[in-house]
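Materials and Methods. Structural model of Nuclease SbcCD subunit D. The 460-residue sequence of Nuclease SbcCD subunit D from Actinobaculum massiliense ACS-171-V-Col2 was retrieved and submitted for structure prediction as follows.
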Amino acid sequence: MKILHTSDWHLGRSLHGASLRDAFTLWTRHVTDTVRDLHIDALLIAGDIYDRAVPPSEMVTLLSRTLSELASLTTVIITSGNHDSPQRLGFGADLMREGIHIRTDARQCGNPVEVTAAGGERALIYPIPYLDPDVARHDLAAEEPLERSHEAVMRAALGLIRESIEAEEPAAGGPTPARIIMTHEFVSGAQESDSERDISVGGIGAIPASLFRLGEQEGIGPIDYVALGHIHSPQRIGAHTGAPLMRYSGSPIAFSFSETAPKQSVLLELSWGEANGVGPLEPVTEVANVDPLAEAPEPARAPAAVGPTGGAGAVETSGSGTAAPEPADEQPGRAGRPTVRTRLIPAPVWRPIATIRGSLAEILGPAHIADREKFVKVEVTDASRPREMNPLIRQAFPHALDVQHRPPAASHEKRIVDVKRENPLDVLKEFLIQAGGEEATKEELIILRQAVEASRGREQ
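The predicted structure was written out as tokens:
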């Protein structure tokens, strides 16, 4: 059985104001192609499929067309995240076509979605939507509201799953079904980036990985895999906590310049008994940039991109090249449970991103010609701010999204100034030296004197 774990699509999001419309189109085509080419039995989207509660209409259209195509290929299971609106995302969920399951109600956590592979193997998927403590502490309470914390509401949701598992009837002649939890939460030990929204309550937002053992004191418990969403950097967590195998798939697109790891989805492979061998996988492919709303023939596909690559001084989140799915983790089967293997499938790259640091001359020089068509963040390190810095950089880098002057730290000691006792002009002159690294020019001194005199005139 093969299950594709994704999360945090954030359809409609931008990068420092730049549209990512074509990147979302490329990603949705990649997902559809992957599901078709690898014969995926279920696609998981663990929260934040949209970036905000009211998404742009073109993103609604893009998702609608994508789900329509996916429904003919596999089972799709979607949960709401902290960016989605559970009410809007869940509206009409019961009317969705067969094969599409949207879960936004925390009270349904104990009701799994059953997935059956062509060979008869089964998996029970337990979708947990994002649990806002202010809401879920009432929804999941037996009587009195639960404690206002992420851990308390998650413990209650997992309790519903535990009850469901205990009520299961033994498998009649077939293998025991795999059990998978998908949820959108911050689990202790995860490494954040700059693009996640803080979900902490009272300064505490993390839940311990050990909760997913469902109360078992020995072993990893009855869960075979936990498909996590919310953190945008792909990573495995909980490896030394006794918890079941659990991973963040990460977002498929970089939404900040801090996301330096290559983007990917997680291919989950489940096998029972002697059929545990997993053969090599074909490289996953991407499609050319196309208008997501246009009716057009299927474009030619090229090998998927995987990073990092790039010029000197650049910190890449993604680049170009080819790669087959990368082996990641394995959890051996136990007492009738399936063996769980994961592989990392590189996400396609629409436009690479990079952070470039150096003097203006270095940045505009030949070392960074390869970065000219990337989304870039530029940090200029000249001691004083170069004249025409922004126009020169934006002319050379048409997709520069963030340009900053970051001079070396001043070597002289900073001091606290009592502006009421010292000459305001002297204070301003010292500030220019500390902030810009140079003394004020004659022209700047004239402007400063005029500003000080005008200020004194208003005070009188």
